[in-house]
Amino acid sequence: MCLAHRFSGLLRAWRSLNTPQNREAVKGWLFTIVRRENARQTLRARLVERG
């Protein structure tokens, strides 16, 4: 899935949040996504370095 599609879906989800409770619940979800993506990118960079 390309980055544009991922961002589009994330943006739609973010815009759908209307209540403060939902915003707080999603905060942890967003941090999890960012943390996993960072780990994935780090692993990919290491694999490229090994050649």
From TrEMBL:
Superkingdom: Bacteria
GO molecular function term, any single one: DNA-binding transcription factor activity
An individual GO BP term: DNA-templated transcription initiation
InterPro entries in alphabetical order: RNA_pol_sigma_r2 (IPR013325)
The name this protein goes by in its record: RNA polymerase, sigma-24 subunit, ECF subfamily
